């Protein structure tokens, strides 16, 4: 009789162990699943911005009686945007740069507000290149005043280097056409006198940035 009870107890124990092992494995697999694909981030930062002006176009016509009012400049850029686990970033930027105006302005300031989109190319390394397009508004004048305004575009290539999970350093270099309304400056010179009352200047933008990334709540 004792042997019968012993055999029955051993059979029940083996059955329970056999059923528990797959369940533990399932739980382990469940905890090892990758994070959900809808994780997204708020990405923001500041940067040192430089604007080179290889051609001021009709803003500084060749037959002008005064020096060029729009030269190169340096300043700061602030941006914030949304970045998902997809390779895209959508955001906005405000940039202010002080320019060389050949002493026609005491403090020549170009201000830009742009919407930007990036397309990252991730090779699985800390250095992640991207392409950038942008479009926005711009105003130019003396000491943050507005003498003329118009539109600015951006077409650039850049890269980010991941310093940590939450911080990245980067750079971007691109072409920026600046289209502004015709105006007469303080020296009486007519500027940006092109078709439909607008003129175009051709700029090269260079930025060095530090950006932070913060995970947002799930959708």
Structure in a nutshell:
With 219 residues, the protein is mainly beta.
Can you describe what's shown?
It is a single chain. This protein has 1 helix and 10 strands. It is mostly beta strands. It has 2 domains: 1-33; 40-215, Porin. The protein has an 8-stranded antiparallel barrel. It is elongated. The relative contact order is 0.19.
List the SSEs and their pairings.
Elements: H1 2-31, E1 40-55, E2 73-84, E3 88-99, E4 108-120, E5 127-142, E6 148-162, E7 167-181, E8 183-184, E9 190-191, E10 198-215
Antiparallel strand pairs: 1-2, 1-10, 2-3, 3-4, 4-5, 5-6, 6-7, 7-10, 8-9
Quote the average pLDDT.
86
Please provide the ordered H/E string of secondary-structure elements: HEEEEEEEEEE
Share of β-strand residues:
over 45%
Strand order in the sheet with the most strands: 1-2-3-4-5-6-7-10
Query: How large is the count of helical segments?
Result: 1
């Amino acid at each position: 009789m004792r042997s019968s009870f012993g055999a029955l107890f051993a059979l029940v124990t083996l059955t329970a162990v056999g059923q528990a092992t797959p369940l533990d494995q399932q739980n382990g697999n469940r905890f090892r699943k990758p994070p959900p694909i809808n994780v997204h981030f708020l990405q923001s930062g500041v940067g040192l911005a430089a604007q080179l002006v290889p051609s001021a176009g009709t803003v500084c016509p060749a037959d002008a009686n005064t020096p060029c009012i729009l030269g190169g400049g340096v300043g700061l850029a602030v941006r914030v945007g949304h970045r998902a686990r997809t390779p895209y970033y959508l955001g906005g930027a405000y940039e202010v740069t002080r320019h060389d105006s050949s002493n026609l302005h005491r403090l020549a300031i170009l201000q830009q507000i742009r919407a930007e989109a990036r397309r990252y190319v991730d090779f699985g390394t800390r250095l992640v290149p991207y392409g950038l397009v942008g479009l926005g508004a711009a105003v130019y004048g003396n000491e943050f005043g507005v003498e003329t305004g118009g539109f600015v575009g951006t077409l650039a290539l850049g890269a980010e280097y991941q310093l940590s999970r939450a911080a990245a350093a980067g750079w971007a270099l691109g072409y920026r056409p600046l289209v502004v309304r015709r105006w007469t400056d303080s020296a009486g010179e007519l500027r940006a006198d092109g078709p439909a009352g607008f003129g175009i200047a051709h700029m090269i933008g260079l930025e060095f940035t530090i950006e932070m990334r913060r995970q947002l709540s799930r959708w």
